Every structure is written in structure tokens, then in C-alpha cells.
Amino acid sequence: MKQNEFLIFEDLKGVAKKKKEADRQSIGIFDLEQPPKTITCEEAVERVQAFAPRTNVDAGLVQNLRKLNRLRNQLEHYAIAADEEEVTKILSPLKDDFTEAKATMLDAARRTALDMDSLFRRLHHEQEG
Fold this sequence. Notes:
By secondary structure, the protein is mostly helical. It has 4 helices and no strands.
């Protein structure tokens, strides 16, 4: 699957201008005084499911991301005190999910690299022969 980091932005209209501005200032796009807005976790999952349908998005991961997003909203908008145990309960499975997803992606990348290497070797062999 090809990566497209621009899929994280809420509105692509002004992103190119902001990227040029950040480059001109030699800073990251999120270091701008008014950085572009990004999508929510739920929107990110929806985009992955829509644009990379072969990517398996675990239902448990989605559920934990939603819990984490609700907690973040409560902390940000209502200034509540977070229950450390609840936060830990939500974050622990996410760590495992991300670790597993990373291993799966690395394995897929490794297999793709081996397939490409094999293909290039065959093509090279055919050109010599």
C-alpha cells in the first residue's frame, strides 16, 4: 500500500499553501502558528477502510481508539480529572495493537522487497541470456 500523509488533514484546500509556508520558514507544518487541522481517529479508520480495503482494521483497536478519543474530549472540553487506571486500561491494548500492526507491516514490506529482488534477478538473468 502506498502512503499518503496528506490523508490526515481535514481540508486539503489550504494544506499546500501551509506546507510551502512551513518550508520557507524551515519548520514542520505542525510548528506553524496556525497549523492545518487534522482528522479524528474515527475518520482516520474510515479512510483506511475506504482507501486501503485490504488492510485489516481490528475491531478491538477501533473500540479502544474510540474510548481514547472520548476521554481526550472530556479532558479537553470539560477539564475533568482523568482516572489513571482507566487511561492505562485503554492505552495498554493500543500499545499491543500498534506493536502487532507494525510487525505485520514490516513483514509485508520484507516480503515485497524479497519479491522485487527475485523479479529483478529474473529480469537481469533474462537480459543476459
